[in-house]
Structure formats: structure tokens, C-alpha cells
Amino acid sequence: MTIKTLKVRLYPDEDQKALLEKHFGSCRFVRNHFLEVRNKYYAEHKDDKKKGLSAFDTMKMLTALKKEVTWLNEVNSQSLQHSLVELDKAFKSFFKHNTAYPRFKSKKDSKQYFIVPSGFKVEGNRLVIPKFTEGIKYRDESTIPENMKRIVITRDVDRYYASVVYESDEKPSVGMGAVGLDMGVKHFLTTSDGIQVEPLNALKKREKQLKREQRRLSRKERGSGNGKKQIVKLERLYQKIRDARTDFNHRVSSAIARHYGTVVIEDLNVRGMAQNHKLAKSVLDQSWYQFREMLEYKLQWRGGELIKIGRFDPSSEMCSRCGNIKRDLKLSDRIYHCDVCGLTIDRDLNAAINIMRMGFLKVGKGIPEFTPVEIPLAGYLNREGISYVSLKQEPQIL
Fold first, then answer.
1. DSSP letter at 215?
2. What is the pLDDT of residue 215?
3. Is 112 helix (H, G, I), strand (E, B) or coil?
4. What kind and span of H or E run contains 16?
5. Residue 397 falls within a domain, yes or no?
6. Residues 381, 388: contact at Cβ < 8 Å?
7. Pairing of strands 178-183, 262-266
């Protein structure tokens, strides 16, 4: 059994939208209230052995709070309790040095959510959850499975979604072979067997439109009705950019996970690369982190493996034939010329080959024989509607 998530779009009526907003607001209020309570408790009990409150402690306090704040009874009590569970997880993650300190949530955040841990079912094309006995209509192109574990209801600007977490006994096939991926700006990625995927550049394509809408917003009076409408219009435009990136990353990562069993990728220093003001916008427009996260969980689900090499490994500077390090390599040099063995090869392809070999050496595996193919992955990419090129030259590998 594996845990999977299916995201479907909801189409609530006006009354249901109002009730959904009450759920978002109430869960946010409870989380913020008990974040402040836990902060004060910790400050007052620094010298005690028990320095903080647990999720169970705050749940007992929630019962008393609901008697004072009566409008909390209008929403699902399990969702309120689960917001405290999520707050407790955030504290534990912080103390393990995995995340930043929990912060207060704002109603101005474009993305709002609440969790429904139980009491849900599907009736036709409607999703029934507590307090929504008539069910919320959803797009019935996707079939929601019966063995649901929990549901996360989200709002993104003016759209509502349900992310259904369920158990699946599906056993997908494991991809064959291994590949190294070199991520870049000129090409979104280059594979070690000669495929280059063209970048989406979602932000760049809508940059002029964004600037125009931002100028219009700057002319509106702060807090006015027209100003709020313009903010929503701008948020929708950013939403389209996010959706385009997410769709692109899903299609590319799915194609790679289906085709390869082992993928080697470089741990890029995105924050450091973004310090270059000439490249910052292009670097952030690629959304490499989201792609890597998608690729990792899809490989794990299929029984594959993702290997990460260090960000300081000389993947671009090293010759993939003789191992010579070319220290004077510039970013503008798109073709790699080796001064020792005479190898001439595309710079990104050379790096992808090195990444694959470094990854296998890192985990103690034998280096696979490099054989450029006519490339089966190209069929997957073409089927997914992804723009790519196949490098004609074959690298000279000893």
C-alpha cells in the first residue's frame, strides 16, 4: 500500500463559499490564538522541565475557548483540532532545525486551507464533508477513490480545491537505465543521453502583462473597491504563472520517472545563483526545487532512486572523457573544448555525463556504460507536449 493524493477542483455555491470562508478563518484564528498562547507559556515557564504545551493541552483549552467565542461552533470541530495538530508539528519541526519558527497566518494570504480528517464520503459528483451535508460539487473527470484517509480543502485566489489523500495498491513499473540531469537556464535540463528540454519561462512570457497590471494597481486608491478588484486580477495572473510551472514540472518529472530507474541530479545553490542580478529572475523562473521534489517522490513511488551530488563538484569544468579540469571555463562558453584530449562537446551534455558518473561513484555503484540512444525518452516528451531537442553529436567516451 502506498499513500497518494488526488487534487480535484470544487465548485461550491454562494452559501457554501461563505461557509468555506468561515472554516478558513476559524482554523486560522485558532492556530494564531494558540501560537500566541504557546509563546507566552514558554516565556513564563523557561525554568520548568516542561517548557511547552502539547497538542493535547491546547485541544483541552480549545473546548473552553469555544464557550467564549461561540462562532467557532459553526465550523467542523475536527478541522479546528487538526489545526492545533499542524501547529504542534510545526513546533517539533522547528526544534529539530528543519524549518523556521512557526509564524502567524494572515487572511491576506492568497492560499487558505483547512483539513478534514474524517467524516467524508462521495455521492455522485459531490464531495460530502462535515457541515456540508448536501455535498460540494466537484469536477467529475477524476474519480475519487473510496479508501480516503483525509481531505485538505484549499482556496487559491478565487478557486477551491480538495486534495484527497488515499491508499493505493497500484504497482507501477520501474523505469530502466540511469541518467544524469544538468539543470540550467538556457535549457531547462539536459540528459546524459542527449536530450535537452527547452525552458517554459512562464514568468518571462507574462512579464509585460504583469508590469501593465501592476501600474494599474499603483494608480488605484489604497483600500478602495477598484483597488481590491485590481489586486484579485493581479493574483489571478500570478496564479496562471504558478499553474503553468506546476503543469510543466509534472509532465517533465513524470516522463523521466517512467523512463529511468536511477536519476542523478545536482544539488543546486539556487539562493546563491539568485544573488546574480543578471540571472536572478531567469533562475527563479525555472522552479528547480519544485521539479526536484516532484521527481523524487515519483521515483520513490515507482521504486526508483534519486541521487544528489554536491553543488561544488566540478561537473561543468571537468572533461567527461579524460577528467581534465578546465578552470578558465566561462558561463558564455556553450561548447566544451578539452585542451588535453581534444574532446569537443556541448557544455551541458558534458556536465550531465559527469553528474551521472559522480552520482554512481558517490553511492558506490559501478559506472554504467554510456550509450547514446535514439532516445526513447523523446517519445515520452513528445507525447507530453514538451519542447525538446536531440543533440546530434555523440560524445566521445572511452
1. H
2. 95
3. strand
4. helix 14-44
5. no
6. yes
7. parallel
List, in order, residues 6 or more apart from 99 with CB less than 8 Å away.
90, 93
Q: What is the pLDDT of residue 309?
A: 86
Nine-digit cell at 266? 545536482
Concatenate the DSSP letters of all residues of 281-324 into one string.
HHHHHH-HHHHHHHHHHHHHHHT-EEEEE-TTS-TTTB-TTT--
Q: Which of the listed residues 168, 202, 218 is the one where a domain comes to its end?
A: 168
Reported as a single tens digit per residue, the pLDDT across 262-317 is: 999 988 877 777 777 777 888 888 888 899 999 999 998 888 999 988 877 778 88
What's the whole-model pTM score? 0.82
Residue 190 and residue 73 in one domain = no
Same domain, 162 and 183: no
- Residues 333, 366, single domain; the answer is yes
Tell me the backbone φ, ψ of residue 269, rounded to 5 degrees.
Answer: -90, 80
191 vs 134: CA distance, rounded Å:
50
Q: Which three cell numbers stand for residue 204?
A: 518571462
| Residue (of 196, 173, 185) closest to 375 by Cα position | 196
Residue 395 in domain: no
Domain with 94, as residue range(s), is: 2-168
User: Which residues are bridge partners to 335 per DSSP?
Assistant: 346
Output the pLDDT for position 375: 55
Among all chains, which residue has been given the C-alpha cell 578558465? Answer: 328
| Residues classed as catalytic | 182, 266, 348
Cα dist from 315 to 113, 265, 275, 295, 320, whole Å: 42, 11, 21, 21, 9
- Considering the domain architecture, whether residues 198 and 160 belong to the same structural domain is answered as no
Mean pLDDT per block of 10 residues along the chain (398 residues) reads 87 96 96 94 75 87 94 95 94 89 88 92 92 90 84 92 88 83 89 88 92 94 91 92 93 91 86 77 87 92 88 81 82 83 86 88 68 56 74 46
